[in-house]
């Protein structure tokens, strides 16, 4: 698992995917306690 992405990373991911007509449904990452979290852009 990866660390939580920063705000700039999320913006870059969304911009890049949008330019390719893709959409981010969810992004999984682990927090500082090792718990798995899900970021969804709904």
UniProtKB/TrEMBL annotation:
Record-given protein name: Uncharacterized protein
């Amino acid at each position: 698992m990866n660390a939580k992405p920063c705000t700039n990373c999320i913006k870059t991911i969304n911009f890049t995917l949008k330019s390719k007509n893709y959409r981010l449904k969810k992004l999984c990452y682990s927090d500082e306690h090792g718990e798995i979290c899900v970021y969804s852009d709904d």
